[in-house]
Hints:
The protein has helices at residues 3-9, 21-29, 69-79, 98-109, 125-131, 166-190, 196-206, 219-224, 234-250, and strands at residues 10-16, 32-33, 46-50, 59-64, 86-93, 113-118, 135-138, 150-151, 154-155, 230-231. It is α/β, with parallel strands linked by helices. The protein has a seven-stranded mixed beta sheet with strand order 3-1-4-5-6-7-10, sandwiched between helices. A three-stranded antiparallel beta sheet has the order 2-8-9, covered by helices on one side.
Amino acid sequence: MNDDKSDVMGASLVLVPDRSREVRAALKRSLTVVGVFGAVFGGLALYKRATRVRLPEGVVSIVAPVIWPETAEAILRILEPLGDDEVTLLLHTNGGCISSCIQIADALRKFRKSTAVVPYMALSGGTLIALNAKTLYMGRNASLSAVDPIIGGRRGKNLPESGKYATDRATAKEYEAAIRTYLRSTLEARLPGAGEAKIQAAMDVFMGKDAPHEWPIRPAEIGGLGIQVGVADSAWAKYVDSLRDQQDRQLGY
């Protein structure tokens, strides 16, 4: 195996700070984030591939507080040479830009065999990515969350119809409709042959009908919806821990 291939087959994303005025301004202008922590980590925007933490062959990781367009671009560049045979995605994220998360989820859909491993959390947009893998493994304390849109730091469906938030509410409706359609197609693929009642029950959970956006959806609840969830080996959590430690070192923590 040559060095170039090994870099691709065990590839990770490591967070680095970007302090450019242009990037900060672009992030500030961005309204639509699927993930409640988007505003907190808005200044940490760019991601670079790194291979200091060596992952098993065929494993690609996204260990990032927020998934931005730069993240999606880097991941798609890693996935493209793999063809459509098999991939394992190691996920640890609070969510991110919805278009970026959908791009990664779409790429997973195209693989004949795809596995998402969530040792701790894959919230919001990360949940959409995890659900679009054909196989899902989660740590015993791991969680997913609702995927409905967050607009300007507020839950879209709770924005008022009039006043200063009227424009944001209109935008939220557009995104919510698109996310609902995408989520339904995702769940229909994960629950083949399921009736409308079963699909709707899963839709309600993942659209956060009766819970806050960031409320944890645990493996037992996901399994109760009919979505098979395997138990992730504890070694996966150690990979995430190592990648997070590497990020902290790069950021000078």
